[in-house]
Write a structure and sequence with these properties.
By secondary structure, the chain is α+β, with helices and mostly antiparallel strands. 26% of the residues lie in helices and 29% in strands. It is built from three helices and six strands, in the order αβββαββαβ. Strand 1 and strand 2 form a beta hairpin.
């Protein structure tokens, strides 16, 4: 297991309620173009788990970032090697490749810069910081490249 396994910020009761409401809207196809429902099979249970996510595109490639750290969806995506992204009635299966910590800083910077209002509280490096500032925390936030 990666060294970041101990890093995880649990969602609050309010965040859980808001995520469910937001997930319901995305399931209906409502929301910005970067919002999706991530579906991934549980590594132990085999059950399909669903969570709302924001995608980020950097250099023409699309990524998922686990801002809360070693989340269940990140561990499941790592084990399964594939995820489904759903919005409304459209669902796309993607293989995923986890980026090594050395490749994460540019993606983390782009993610925090774009979605700071939603994710800044999970990242110790503030929006607008240089890429180099993300090197120290890169191992704490799993990043997955989507491969079609």
């Amino acid at each position: 297991m990666p060294e970041s396994a101990a890093h995880y910020k649990k969602e609050t009761r309010i965040e859980r309620i808001l995520n469910r409401a937001f997930g319901f809207a995305v399931r209906l196809g409502i929301g910005p173009s970067y919002n999706y429902l991530l579906e991934v099979r549980g590594r132990k249970s085999g059950r399909v788990y669903v969570t709302p996510v924001n995608l980020i595109e950097v250099g023409g490639r699309r990524y998922l970032v686990a801002s809360r750290g070693e989340t269940a969806w990140a561990r499941n995506a790592r084990a399964a090697g594939a995820v489904t992204l759903r919005k409304g009635s459209k669902a796309d299966l993607h293989s995923v490749r986890e980026l090594p910590a050395t490749e994460r800083p540019p993606v983390l910077k782009a993610f925090v810069d774009r979605y700071a209002a939603q994710v800044q509280r999970f990242h110790s490096v503030p929006k607008g910081s240089p890429v180099e500032a993300f090197v120290a925390t890169a191992s704490l936030h799993p990043v997955f490249e989507l491969i079609k």
